Structure formats: C-alpha cells, structure tokens
Write the structure tokens for this entry.
Amino acid sequence: MATVSPKVGQTVETQDGRQGVVRYAGPLHIAAGDWLGLELSDDSGKNDGSVKGERYFQCPPRYGIFVRKESIVKIAKQAAPAQRPNGATLTANGSATKPRPSGVMPADIARKRQSLMGGGTGSTAGSRVSVRVRFMP
C-alpha cells in the first residue's frame, strides 16, 4: 500500500471508513508518534479537539477524533487555498499569491503620480525619485 501524507485542511478517510478534515498533525502529549486530529461531519467522534485538558484544534463536542497517521487510507479531498487577511491566497507549496489591483486608476490620482514621477527641470541623467503611493478604498 502506498504511503499517504495528509496535510492540515485535507479531507481524509480512515481505515474504519470515516471521513474528516485534518485540523491538527503532530505529536500528542499523552502518546508517542505522529497523530492527526480530524473534524468529522457528524457527532460520531470522541472529543472537541482536546485530549485530557490539552487543546490541539477547535470543533464542536463529539465531532473530533485523533488517529494515527498510519490509519489514513486515502485523501478524499485536497485542502482549499487558505485566504490571508491581506487578500493573499496561500498555495499548496506554501507561497502566497496576492491578487493584483485593478488597472483602472482615477484621473486625479494619475495626475498626482505623474507630477511626482515627472522628470521636470533640475533632474540629472541617471537620477530617479522613487515614490510609493498607497490607495485606500
């Protein structure tokens, strides 16, 4: 059997046929080895993401289970890209892509930018003024 390497956010299937979203991957304070904390879609679980007072993830009571990594038989669904507060999307390889701003710039802003960037008199060859303008919606 091929080795499955589940990641946080993926939906996985266990040996007993239950599916859940991986909410935690790592060690537990009560047992050695690699563990996965799963949030199930129903209340057939055993906990709320905590074990003996130690919280590993948050979910409703009886919707969480912890299983050994080896008990995962397949990845049923890949994780959706994570959205960051600044609008960037976290890709599968961990890099962030930020949406590009619209190419439309109001005329008054364009004039201000042009006057700041213009090379009027007194500018010498090779000199450049760098100005960063931040637009607030």
In short: The beta strands are 11-14, 19-28, 31-40, 50-51, 54-55, 64-68, 72-77, 82-83, 89-90, 96-97. The longest strand covers residues 19-28.
